[in-house]
């Protein structure tokens, strides 16, 4: 099913698929060795993928959200690491500035992020607050026309490679969002996490020690931070759902190509159902409609489908070829950008408000 994709969306899908199969695939050995693929990010920028949803006035490609989800899906079929680099850069690394920033912030940061000259990251999770994001402890003390940030952030995707960091910290008026640059004194990048999967994606610990951020880099007002984080996670979760869909799709196709059998029918059904949920959420977001519930449904289901498909793929084929990579890459889609339990909470809150199915 093509979901009524426009000719331009189909053309873009074919181009990203070609790029993924012919260029992204050649970076897999390097990524599996644990290296962040900077050269691949440059090639993704040449393909105009890094600013895909950013309006042309800010140097982006000006495509719709559906096109972006198609791109994450296609990239993730070949490399889930490439998928998450783009997803975090776009959904939560760049969009908060576009949606909530001042014109001056947009002019200063978006064109470089959209061109791929800069990479974006998002600093919400802390050692003692992951799922309960509202209990974060990093502080932002107002000091004249600046804020002084102290605290630490955990599991920061693109951390170290990124030039800009959307940081959430507790100011007097509540959780507040800021833009920090890698070069800001007091921003210290820790060691790379040794992960089970997504070896090409960087994940680091970050510490802020008396990091001074100008007032001009505050996004919105004091106290707006939690809503800014949540609103951008709606889009982010569709991106991760598309990444999970890519892994599920790839595991299914791999198993089907190596060992077609009747048990793959269940896998095919859940991949197809995941596809419907992911693109339903993407269509809503693209149309500017509320999609929090649908985003969480898509992420909850697609991540489960990815784990199930990758598990079945390994069960049937063993650890040969890409099968074990799908297996290692799939699990985190049930954990980051809100665990499956968090998605259930979000869905239940929407259902309780009468936003039924
Ligand atoms: N859009 C806008 N506003 C929203 C919103 C949304 N989607 N969701 C909630 N809000 C608002 C609510 O309206 C509410 O506003 P009021 O106070 O004015 O009524 C406020 O935010 C608080 O909302 P809740 O009462 O729902 O908040 P909560 O504390 O009960 O919990 C939660 C919310 C869903 C559990 C939340 O803490 C959450 O999503 N946790 C998971 C965090 C997460 O996903 N982290 C991912 C880190 S990023 C990452 O993983 C990137 C990566 O590396 C790949």
From TrEMBL:
<dbReference type="InterPro" id="IPR013786">
    <property type="entry name" value="AcylCoA_DH/ox_N"/>
</dbReference>
<keyword id="KW-0560">Oxidoreductase</keyword>
<feature type="domain" description="Acyl-CoA dehydrogenase/oxidase N-terminal">
    <location>
        <begin position="6"/>
        <end position="117"/>
    </location>
</feature>
<dbReference type="Pfam" id="PF02771">
    <property type="entry name" value="Acyl-CoA_dh_N"/>
</dbReference>
<dbReference type="InterPro" id="IPR009075">
    <property type="entry name" value="AcylCo_DH/oxidase_C"/>
</dbReference>
<dbReference type="InterPro" id="IPR006089">
    <property type="entry name" value="Acyl-CoA_DH_CS"/>
</dbReference>
<dbReference type="InterPro" id="IPR036250">
    <property type="entry name" value="AcylCo_DH-like_C"/>
</dbReference>
<dbReference type="Pfam" id="PF02770">
    <property type="entry name" value="Acyl-CoA_dh_M"/>
</dbReference>
<dbReference type="InterPro" id="IPR037069">
    <property type="entry name" value="AcylCoA_DH/ox_N_sf"/>
</dbReference>
<dbReference type="GO" id="GO:0003995">
    <property type="term" value="F:acyl-CoA dehydrogenase activity"/>
</dbReference>
<dbReference type="Pfam" id="PF00441">
    <property type="entry name" value="Acyl-CoA_dh_1"/>
</dbReference>
<comment type="similarity">
    <text>Belongs to the acyl-CoA dehydrogenase family.</text>
</comment>
<dbReference type="GO" id="GO:0050660">
    <property type="term" value="F:flavin adenine dinucleotide binding"/>
</dbReference>
<protein>
    <recommendedName>
        <fullName>Acyl-CoA dehydrogenase</fullName>
    </recommendedName>
</protein>
<dbReference type="InterPro" id="IPR006091">
    <property type="entry name" value="Acyl-CoA_Oxase/DH_mid-dom"/>
</dbReference>
<keyword id="KW-0274">FAD</keyword>
<dbReference type="InterPro" id="IPR046373">
    <property type="entry name" value="Acyl-CoA_Oxase/DH_mid-dom_sf"/>
</dbReference>
<dbReference type="InterPro" id="IPR009100">
    <property type="entry name" value="AcylCoA_DH/oxidase_NM_dom_sf"/>
</dbReference>
<feature type="domain" description="Acyl-CoA dehydrogenase/oxidase C-terminal">
    <location>
        <begin position="223"/>
        <end position="351"/>
    </location>
</feature>
<feature type="domain" description="Acyl-CoA oxidase/dehydrogenase middle">
    <location>
        <begin position="121"/>
        <end position="211"/>
    </location>
</feature>
<keyword id="KW-0285">Flavoprotein</keyword>
